[in-house]
Amino acid sequence: MPIDYTERIPNNVDLADDRRLKRALESWQPKFLDWWQTLGPALPTQDVYLRTAVDVGRAGWAHFGHVALPEYRWGIFLADRKPDRRIAFGQEMGAPVWQQVPGEYRADLQRLIVVQGDTEPASVEQQRHLGMTAPSLYDLRNLFQVNVEEGRHLWAMVYLLHAYFGREGRDEAENLLVRNSGSEESPRILGAFNEETPDWLSFYMFTYFTDRDGKYQLGTLKESAFDPLSRTCEFMLKEEAHHMMVGTTGVDRVVRRTAEVMRERDTDEVAAYGAIPLSVIQKYLNFHYSVSLDLFGSETSTNAANYFTAGLKGRWMEERRKDDHRLTDAFTEIGTVRDDQLTGVEIPSLIGLNQDLRDEYAADCAGGVKRWNAILTDAGLDARLYLPHQGFNRKVGAYSGHHITPDGRIVAAEEWEAGRDTWLPTPDDKAYVESLMRPVYDPGKIAAWVAPPSNGINGKPFDYEYVHLI
């Protein structure tokens, strides 16, 4: 169905035909807007050049124009339904997908939706103050585009909770606005979404690494036998791609500017010239990558096995896998620690699904590092960035509780503590990066620590006035 923008809540789910659901969501809407005004972007703006969904199909679904942020039309959009879609994995493989929630899976599906939904407003809260230090109007616009789309992703999960989970779902939807990132009394569910995003280097790393985790989590839910969840996540993935582009090209531009200064000044000590040293970039990379790895959960998980067997949550690109899609007799090797040594152990593939997804993610992340190193090569520099070992700085799973260096060595606690400041951002590193965070709001101008983008938005030049400030 086409998206109906004449409705108070734009949608393509026939909301007008379900009066009870429509009233419930219209009752939730003012609470969402109050949350946005209270914990959304703090920088006052007149309007922003934003992309708004106008269609969910491949023919093109984005409309661009200047919009006042509080007037952005958040809505509920599901990808088109495939009438003959069948379950692609698990014990019910081949059966028609579900249009309603099976009673025996109600609690598990609700939990999956709540956890995913909780991440969406969390990132907006984490990024609330970044507009105050934007390095250019182009970057400021991208920040706000990410923010409004995370807000819409919250709407996507809230719709499912209201439409399919009764009073418990409505209560959970309320709680999505009660929890706040970093709150001591009511924090967000996942640890990475309670971390600060205090500067733009952190923002670029977050949108590269943590939003990429979101891509893979949404990709597994897109495979779900619960069709409304699958269709919701399929459309969300289109918007998530922009968030990762912001991260990928953002780190590109930081590395490029640092490389330019290193070459021009013939030194690694670029801080004196207002650039971010590669060593600091590496530390931020180490932190955000390791924190994001924890989001995939423990390497072995009976919950993940049960979700797969039941058809609730598949694997990344499930239908492209060359196996029986049931995994009842399959085995896989995962990394672990045994007798203070890094080793591999063979386990049933069903209980190793979290690690299967983490490995897909890690391979994807390596592509970004290869891209950033190509920038250094093109600049004639020998320095290289790298992904740390998957066991580094882990708080969840088989590696938690062990002191593992970025190059994959288990060391004593004393040696790890001695090396911490060379592997993770120090207070001095953070203070230096923060010292660079001075806003640049003039069209066509940019902060000295980051290179300008290669292209503008929607064919517009870099010096286009993407944001009108008050």
TrEMBL record:
Q: Does the keyword Oxidoreductase apply?
A: yes
Please give an example of a GO cellular component term from this record: cytosol
Q: Which GO terms describe its molecular function?
A: oxidoreductase activity
The UniProt keywords, alphabetically, are: Oxidoreductase
Report the EC code(s) recorded for this entry: 1.14.13.208
Which top-level enzyme class is recorded in the Swiss-Prot or TrEMBL entry? Answer: oxidoreductase
Q: Name one GO biological process term.
A: phenylacetate catabolic process
According to UniProt, the name of this protein is Benzoyl-CoA 2,3-epoxidase subunit BoxB
* Organism listed in the record: Streptomyces coryli
Lineage at the top is: Bacteria, Bacillati, Actinomycetota, Actinomycetes, Kitasatosporales
